[in-house]
Amino acid sequence: MSMISFVLMGLLAAVFILLYIYDRLKIDDSLRRSLNNWTLTAAGLIFAAYANIASAAVLIVVTLIAWYFAKSSKFWYIGIIGSLVSLGLFKYTGFVIKSAAELTGHSSPALNIIIPIGISFYTFSAISYIVDVHRGETQARGLGDVAAYITFFPKLTSGPIQRGGDFFEQSMKRRNVGVSTFLPGMQIFVFGVFKKLVMADRLSVFVDQVYETPMIFSSFSILLAVIAYSFQIYFDFSGYSDMAVGAAKILGYDLPVNFNLPYLAHNVTELWKRWHITLSTWLMKYVYISLGGNRKGKARTYLNLLITMVIGGIWHGANWTYIIWGMLHGSALAVHKAWMTLTKSNEKKHSLISNFFSIIATFIFTTFCWIFFRAPSLHTAALIINRLFTFQEGINQPYFWLFVTLAMYFIAVTTAIVRSRGGKMKQDKLNTSFVKAEYPVLDLSKFWNLVVFFVFCGLLIALAYTGGSPFIYGNY
Length: 476
Hints:
By secondary structure, the chain is mainly alpha-helical.
């Protein structure tokens, strides 16, 4: 993990102690809430400032914009524009200038724009708060509440994207920070660390080698690397989400679940109900529905899906590869919706074979799209695809940890299916649409549960990749 992850853990320990003390002071609840809010705000700003001072400064500006303009009944939209301007200025200026220079045949000037850490995530949080207040779905809050919400450091860099009303509802309550929040939160946090250090980071070694020099690897090795990246990004991002959920739990807050076994999805629509759930929910609520959703005819519905996913691609980064990635998913969503309308297949029961192949087909499509997400340029993506499908010779590297990861993933998925079915595996139908992943939280007051937890921690220490690899979504 990067050094900033250790800063996160240090801040987590300090804030936990302070909130624990506040909960036990004989003071008025409003004063306790104020102390909690400003302590969380200070921690968030320290966390951002550790990355660079500009990150903290922009975070303060976006927070003030959201707080001030959400209260305005006439000029609330200026808050949205201001938030988007700050996002565009830092994240997309270089891309726009470079693209314009390429179109005109000129060389683009050298730019060194520092992208504030987590700006994509907290900008969306600010926008959702402003819109929710305007729509009457939550009340305008004081600066302390808004600042604590937007700067909440467990979710600052990579989400999940939590709505303001959900956060405020929890902050108004007495959370009794202590052992009852620490033990489950710590287990979820450690579970996320295992995903990151043992599974994602070990896969990154192989993936980075292939994507940096695809010309020297065989088609078989490239195929394995493409598959490996599908699991790397899943374990990397879901690992951070678990760490964020665990850290928030330690402090007495519940963050929304961000992943629910996405590679069990039967189609791309279901995929986006399982992958990065808070982002897909945000895009649906604040972009797709705002564009008209499915209320303005079929053609407009398909266009709205495409526009929404292109925006989702642009949100991830300033590169044409992300735009292509978004267009592919938007087109797939439109095609699937048209197919569902034409065949009314949502009303039909599907066989074991049909469900199996729909899961495999969805995974293959998702994995293909990840090529554009991972490749640094369209040229590299095209090269990867070309070598993938033309059976080129080169270095054959059947990376051992990929197969270990696949085995662990299969065991975890099988366990989730068995638990969801009440301990029984039905053979007549592979319908996994209802299967839900659950955090393996143990009652550590029991001896054997404690043994299992420490064995798990021992495996984490023994198997962790210590080469250091930043969180993938930390770049967004």
